[in-house]
Amino acid sequence: PFVAACDDRVTTRRRLVAEHGIDPRQPWLLAVAMMRHDVKLLSFQLLAQALERAVDHAWQILLVGDGPARSDVEALFAPFGDRVRFVGILSGPDLPEIYAAADLYVWPACNEAYGMALLEAQAAGVPVVAGMEGGVADVVDAASGCLVSPRSPAALAEAVRTLLLDPSRRRAMGQAAQARVRSWHATSVASARLAAVMAKLETGMSIG
C-alpha cells in the first residue's frame, strides 16, 4: 500500500491542501507518533526545538497521531502557527497516502527500539532525518536518509535545512529508501530468510 500510494501522490496532495489548508508550494515535513508522556513527548520537544532553528526556511509540518500528551504537543508547536497541522490518528489507506504526500520525514527517535514509522516512510519513498539512537540505524542508512547525533536539536535542524535546500537529493534518497525496503524489509524477503534459517536448523537436528 505504501508503494501504491506513491502513484496517487498528486491527487493526495491536492486533497490534503483542501482539507488542511496546506501550502503546496512549500516542502511538507511529516512525523507520525503516539503522543504519550514518555520518550515520545521528549522526541516532540526535540523536534520543536530543531524546527525553531530552521524557521528561516520554508516548510510546513504534518503531525499524525494522538494520545494523552496531545495538549502538551500542541503547546510545543503553537509558536509555529499555521506552519503546523495536527492530522490526528490515521488508518487504512489514509496513512500510506500521507507518507507518500510528504517531502521529508523528521523524527528525533529517542529510545527508538526499531522505528516502524521510519520504515513506513521509506516504503513510501520519503527520505528520513532521524536521531541515531536505538535500532534506527537498522532501518535507515546514509543512502536513504540522514542520521544525526542522538537528542541534538542542532544536528537535526542542520540536516533538515540541508535537505530542504536540495530537492534532487531528497528525491534520490527517497528512491534509495524505497529500494532498501524492497531489498531488506519486504515480506517475501523476510520469509525467504526465515525459511533458510529453519532449513539449517532442520538439517542440524536431523544430523544430530
Topology:
Elements: H1 2-7, H2 9-20, E1 28-32, H3 39-52, E2 60-64, H4 70-77, E3 84-88, H5 94-101, E4 104-107, H6 116-123, E5 128-131, E6 145-148, H7 153-164, H8 167-185, H9 187-207
Parallel strand pairs: 1-2, 1-4, 2-3, 4-5, 5-6
Helix pairs in contact: 2-5, 3-4, 3-7, 6-8, 8-9
Proportion of β residues?
Answer: 5-15%
Main structural class: alpha/beta
The end-to-end distance, rounded to whole angstroms, is 44 Å
So how many helices? 9
Molecular shape: globular
Total number of β-strand segments? 6
Q: Give the topology string: H per helix, E per strand.
A: HHEHEHEHEHEEHHH
Q: Residue share in helices?
A: 40-55%
Uncertain runs: none
Outline the biggest β-sheet: 6 strands, parallel
The main sheet orders its strands as 3-2-1-4-5-6
Mean pLDDT: 94
Radius of gyration: 18 Å
Written overview of the protein:
It is a single chain. Helices cover 52% and strands 13% of the residues. The model has no long low-confidence stretch (mean pLDDT 94). It starts with a helix and ends with a helix. The protein has a six-stranded parallel β-sheet with strand order 3-2-1-4-5-6, with helices on both faces. The chain is an alpha/beta fold. The chain is built from nine helices and six strands; from the N terminus they run ααβαβαβαβαββααα.
Keywords:
208 residues, alpha/beta, six-stranded parallel sheet, 9 helices
Write a compact overview of the structure shown.
With 208 residues, the chain is of the alpha/beta class. The chain contains 9 helices and 6 strands. Helices cover 52% and strands 13% of the residues.
